[in-house]
Amino acid sequence: MTAPAPRFLLSADDYALTPGVSQGIADLARAGRLSATTALVTLPGWAGAGAEVAALRGQIAVGLHLNLTLGAPLGPMPRHAPGGRLPPVSTWIRRGLGGGIDLTEVQAEIARQIARFEAVAGAPPDLIDGHHHVHALPGVRRALAAALRDRFEGGPVPLIRVPSDGAWPILRRRAAPAKALLVAALAARARPLFRGLGAPVNAGFSGFSGFRREVPFAQELARFCQAPGPVHMVMCHPGHADAGLQALDPVAARREDELAALMAFPDLPARIHHPAGARGPDGRIGWAFLDAA
User: Fold this and answer.
1) Residue 76 lies in a domain
2) Are 200 and 222 in contact (CB under 8 A)?
3) pLDDT interval class at 3 (50, 70, 90)
4) Residue 280 neighbours by CB under 8 Å, 6+ apart
5) What is the four-CA torsion angle of 53, 239, 234, 248, rounded to 10 degrees?
6) Is pLDDT at 2 greater than 60 in this prediction?
7) Which of 90, 192, 242, 292 would suit a FRET pair with 257, their CA atoms being 20 to 30 Å apart?
8) pTM of this structure
């Protein structure tokens, strides 16, 4: 008898990027085909999302997609965004590796984004990750750790996504391995840092894609599920297409394909974790259920 495939966390990035992206994520949540989503709280779409987020939190985990690479920050960042525009991820990588990150400035922006999330959602984030994985990069992760200590000291810390995995599972999946290996190397010290704060973290990560239309997302999703870690997390980028999405989003052309594939993927609701079912009376998710995964 074949053992059942281990369950995994399936998390959709970029809630509040556009109305269509948010709607696509909500459609998957209602269908029981997502574990979580994380929101871009710096964008206009987050401001009026309170009622929708309240409904989502009954179905999936909802967290913060920390943004330091798209559009404008929530507050002044004279060192890193002197013209009011956030720099690309390549700048954060270069500055992080060179020790050129102003930790105080970045910590202040992270704190603003956590507070912004809470002001709209009416609750702390269930999990935190980053646009372009910026939260786990050298330097930025230290600022995030400091912000988490200030905000959650003495209480439960959100799950922090660690976007890395071992070289063997990355190579076995054959899913954008160069990108996955690079991010894994840059995030190599993130896990012990966040675990040291008492934060739940995933153990196993996939979802890296070349976003090529000739490679069906259903085929990639099957690869993402190979060689899973004990608490495996898969990221995805579904959504409905909006007018103007292309200007904001380099993966816009693939979002409809991802949405359709996730809706059709066989037995997906039974194969993923449903953490919203572990919310306690205080509304927080007790991530300890993953210890048995």
Assistant:
1) no
2) no
3) low
4) 286
5) -100
6) no
7) 90
8) 0.95
The DSSP bridge partners found for residue 24 are none
Tally of residues, the chain: 293
How sure is the predictor about 250, in pLDDT bands with cuts at 50, 70 and 90? confident
pLDDT tens column, 190-229? 999 999 999 999 999 999 998 877 788 999 999 999 999 9
Name the residue with tokens 């927080």.
Answer: 284
Residue 95 lies in a domain: no
**Which tokens is 143 given?**
């600022």
Q: Are the C-beta atoms of 191 and 164 separated by less than 8 Å?
A: yes
Residue-number span of the structural domain to which 190 is assigned:
9-63+149-292
Has residue 47 been placed in a domain?
A: yes
Task: List the catalytic residues.
Answer: 13
Question: What is the rounded average pLDDT for all residues in the chain?
Answer: 94
Report residue 132: phi and psi, to 5°. 60, 25
Establish if 85 belongs to a structural domain.
Answer: no
Alpha-carbon distance of 273 to 270, in angstroms, equals 8
Distance from C-alpha of 293 to C-alpha of 290, rounded to nearest angstrom: 5
